[in-house]
Design goal:
Length: 163
């Protein structure tokens, strides 16, 4: 009996899933990364969809006020988002990973605020990427979202804060 090469190849393919909200195909490795970011935050497995829904949405909906860290003004948030966009747009896709993003952004976050509070740069990034007050770290999220989606969400946050 002859083997079917297509069938044999399919056995070794990584499973892929389709996000209902966007129609986007998500590979199994990406899903594993998402779950690993949130496994410690979960009290029940049923909470996973609420905590991670932002990964599967085309456009996030949240109030611009959420982008502000402590007493940041709209102008300060916009400056932070502009800086993030400039820095992140220069990172090559092959270097787009949590470790490298953290290595590049952490010192920038330290220098950004006179108070040496990293939140002035990193909080607006976290909210721009997730639309949430509580989430996994912005470096992990940016890695999973990828460069294109990360920059898109920063641009959308800039529009939201200027409205």
């Amino acid at each position: 009996m002859k083997k079917n090469p297509k069938k044999d190849e399919a056995a070794f393919e990584t499973p892929k899933f389709k996000a209902v909200s966007t129609g986007e195909t998500i590979d199994f490795e990406t899903l594993k990364k998402i779950v690993s970011c949130y496994h410690e935050r979960l009290k029940k497995l049923s909470e996973i969809s609420e905590l991670t829904d932002f990964f599967f949405k085309e456009k996030l909906e949240y109030k611009g006020e959420l982008l502000k860290w402590e007493r940041q003004t709209n102008r300060e948030v916009l400056i932070a988002l502009d800086k993030l966009e400039r820095i992140l747009s220069k990172i090559e896709i092959r270097a787009w990973n949590r470790k490298n993003l953290e290595k590049i952004l952490s010192p920038e976050a330290e220098r950004f605020s006179k108070k040496k509070n990293r939140g002035y740069l990193l909080w607006p990034l976290r909210v721009a990427l997730t639309g949430k007050e509580a989430s996994a770290g912005p470096f992990e999220i940016a890695e999973i979202l990828g460069k294109e989606k990360t920059l898109k969400r920063i641009k959308e946050a800039k529009k939201l804060i200027t409205e």
